[in-house]
Amino acid sequence: MSFLFHESTLKDQHILITGATGGIGYETAKVAVQAGAKVTITGRNEEKLKQLKNECRERDQVFLYIADLTNTEDREQLLSAAINQHGPITGLVNSAGIGGGDMVESLSEEDMRKIMELNYFSLVQLSQAVYNQMKDQTSGSIVNISSLSGLRGTHGNSAYSASKFAVTGFTQAFAHEAIENNVRVNAICPGYVDTDMGRNAIKSKGEREGRSYEEQLEIAKDSIPSGRLTSPTEVANTIVYLLSDAAENIVGESVKISGGSVMR
Q1: One domain, residues 56 and 72
Q2: Does the predicted model carry a pTM greater than 0.85?
């Protein structure tokens, strides 16, 4: 897919991207840099963060910082380091998240807490901290990565789905408050994305149904009118659009990227 944005689309912007070692965050960083932004990328895998920085067209626009977002001190130090490096944060992409879980009858408290802690609580806490700075400058954009599973429940997916419903609800409620200070908050709700997490979800569903990954993948594709999974770059392009001035009146939306699957 060719680059869709002008190199000045995000000029003078500082975008903080969490979960940058995952497929969606990884591609979003590359697209944001191409669109002219200064970017702070964070995650827990230093090697992959370095690899991402090397793949970005303008490496000097990329600042990497290793952090565990479930840790309060790590979040505070991340923000301090990012602002010291690139100045005030103008855009936040909350892409950090995990899948997993089990059928309700087998779901452990440990799994439930782990999924909710990263997918929801740390997202809210980081958003609070960034928003306190954004409202002082009366501008900014926050994009939360939710899921189609944050709009409708799916079989064997209760813990993940609950965490993403929480993200979607938080996005809508927060958007009402934030827009009073000219800060836009939106969510992206992808279906199956061709990332490690997406492929693992397909694999896990196949295992529960006694099918191979290849068999389950074909079933997944057949359920999508477009006949394919969404690429992480397609999600990244949508995120960068929401970060840009072109989306200045898009507020509190849950933007679905499903290849048409929500029509079924």
Answers
A1: yes
A2: yes
